[in-house]
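Dear Dr. H.,

I hope your travels went smoothly. While you were away I took the liberty of generating a structure for the chain from your last submission, since the lab meeting agenda had it listed for discussion. I wanted you to have the full record in hand beforehand rather than looking at slides cold. The sequence, exactly as received, is reproduced here:
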Amino acid sequence: MSNHVGLLERLGLHRPELRAWAMYDWANSAFVTTIIGAVFPIYFHEVAVASGLTAAQATARFAWITSLAMAIVAVSAPVLGAIADFAAVKKRMLGLFVGVGVVATAAMFFIGPGEVTFASATFVLANVGVASSFVFYDSLLPHIARPDEMDRVSTAGYALGYVGGGLLLAINLAWIQKPEWFGLANAETAVRASFLSVAVWWLAFAVPLFRRVSEPPRRLVEGERAGENPVAAGFVRVAGTLRELRTFKHAFLMLLAFLIYNDGIQTIIRMATTYGTEIGLDRAPLIAAFVITQFVGIPFAFLFGALAGRIGAKRSVFLALTVYVGIAVLGYNMRTAAHFLMLAVLVGMVQGGAQALSRSLFANMIPRHKSSEYFAFFGVFEKFAGIFGPAIFGTMVGLTGSSRSAILSVIAFFVVGGALLAFVNVGEGQRAARAAEAEVRPAP
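The corresponding predicted structure, in token form, is as follows:
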């Protein structure tokens, strides 16, 4: 029994609330793999071409609707995060956006050939749901994990996400390859059924978080009253948080670094499948690559958590960014399905570690009583990465008529973001956050 507990502690899953929190990564990662990464982009490409667009135009359209969804979240997240902190409704906000995302994802089942407008609308709404839910999910991390646990708990979440997302994607791939085995009429029906399965999976595995993770206690900052209008208080808090970012300068510098290097990560995640489709790769290796990425990511996410304990989270992120530069160079030279599968292995090795440790680094440098607000800004910066990266990618495709040259532009994001990260002093950032926490009072 003690060995079992010791293993769970090393993995960051040693308390019920930690396991329940991490299970939401399992729940939402099915959306990331099937909808964002592997199945929907191919189907969207086919739907768009059926509506009269060229292959390159379909790629650009997908990039632009991705940017639109991220822009909506970027504009709304800070105020919603501030309201959630003031009124102590983080879990309610999370539930709201889970609902939006699940309904929109389920509606994708009804997308038919040529219905590019309906496909675009459901994709935008579903992305708004999942991306907004991340803000409130991430904001719970500093409330359930101690500072010395955050790297392990955050990477454990990503590891479980790889398991959940990879498992459902493998099932979806089996449906698409052999629809007759599962009583499905054809591959197109199987594709649409996979969208419905994501909605069910996401909703079902979100339940443990709502049952096991408590709403953090309400804390008021100087000048606030418990009976104030939450919306008005939210706007006031956002303005105050913007001013405070100068106080938490290392957290802010971390945001800037993350904005830039995550731009490259998000572009690779979101555009890889459409790029592979454009250069003529078949559906099977494209989806198989995402299955590989998921299952390679499971042990490497845990390994990055352990590595952070030895060399620090910041140095571990540097290592991941170095590998990403190599991935971009290899992507430019990609010609065959085998090349695409090799790149999938490399991405799986570093994707979870880079993102999970960025999350825990930031969580350690913010005041916990404002975690939704600060993670809203973290989300805003992440979403702007989702805006600029695909938008630049789409622009490069439009200018050159091919995605190949756009791949090399991604390298700049990793180099510049890594350079900014070098100036982040994690210890000083932690001290500033703890000092701010000492000044707040509990709500009456």
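Two observations you may find useful: The two ends are 42 Å apart (CA to CA). The first helix runs from residue 2 to 11.

With kind regards,
E. W.
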